[in-house]
Amino acid sequence: MSEPSYLAEIRNSYDTVADSYHDLLKDAHDSMPFDRAMLAAFAERAQGTVADIGCGPGRITTRLADLGLSVFGIDLSPEMIEVARREHPRLRFDVGSMTALDLADGSLGGVVAWYSIIHLPQDELPGVFAEFFRVLEPGGQLLLAFKSGDERRHLSHAYGHDVSLDVYWMPVDRVAKLAEQAGFTEVARLERAASTNEKGPQGYYLARKQ
Question: Residue ranges of the Methyltransferase domain (predicted)?
Answer without folding.
Answer: 50-140
